[in-house]
Amino acid sequence: MRKPIFDLTDKVAIVTGGSRGIGKAIANEFCNSGATVVIASRKQDGLDKAAEEINTESGKVVPIAAHTGDRDAVENLIQKTLDSCGGIDIVVNNAATNPQFGPILQSEESQWDKVWEVNVKGYFRLAKASFSHMKKRGGGKIINVSSIAAKLPLIG
Questions:
Q1: How high is the pLDDT of residue 156?
Q2: Which family, according to UniProt (predicted)?
């Protein structure tokens, strides 16, 4: 095992979009640093597979299915995290969606609604729902991951 970048012993982190990509890499690093990490994503089977692959020699991983675009699912994620881990210290808002990649004239309003629910309101909901629990533990960190797409204009 390589030396961790920082010490997260006794810290609890929630990482959305944690079943693959950047979210899974963040969860792996947090576990390597001693944290208990809740990985959240829509599909339990993908989470279970990711949980098997994440290095838990120093930390622990807890897979919880949750759609961050759904208010009730976010509240359920918080409650399950509290029940299984005892608190929240770190939230990494990483889950995102982009159902239409291309010219705006080829997109539907419902696609934009989905982007707004997950990529904007989902981040807001999880941050707001976790804040009071972080405060009880003396503070915490909320990390919002975004893409470079705003800096790369598309034709159309």
A1: 63
A2: Belongs to the short-chain dehydrogenases/reductases (SDR) family.
Q: Are 26 and 18 in contact, with CB atoms under 8 Å apart?
A: yes
Place of tokens 């003396």: 138
The kind and range of the H/E element at 64 are: strand 60-65
In a 10 Å sphere around its CB, with 0-12 CB exposed, 13-18 middle and 19+ buried, how is residue 148 labelled?
Answer: exposed
Domains of the chain, first to last? 12-149 (3.40.50.720)
Q: Read off the pTM.
A: 0.93
DSSP for 92-117, please give it. Answer: EE-----S--S-GGG--HHHHHHHII
Closest CA to 143 of 29, 1, 64: 29
Q: What distance in Å separates the CA atoms of residue 49 and residue 148, rounded to the nearest whole number?
A: 28
What is the arithmetic mean of pLDDT over 69-79? 98
Q: How far is CA 141 from CA 7, 68, 97, 101, in A?
A: 14, 18, 23, 31
Q: What integer pLDDT is reported at residue 143 of this predicted model?
A: 98
Closest CA to 38 of 87, 97, 107: 87
Question: Token digits for 89?
Answer: 């210290």
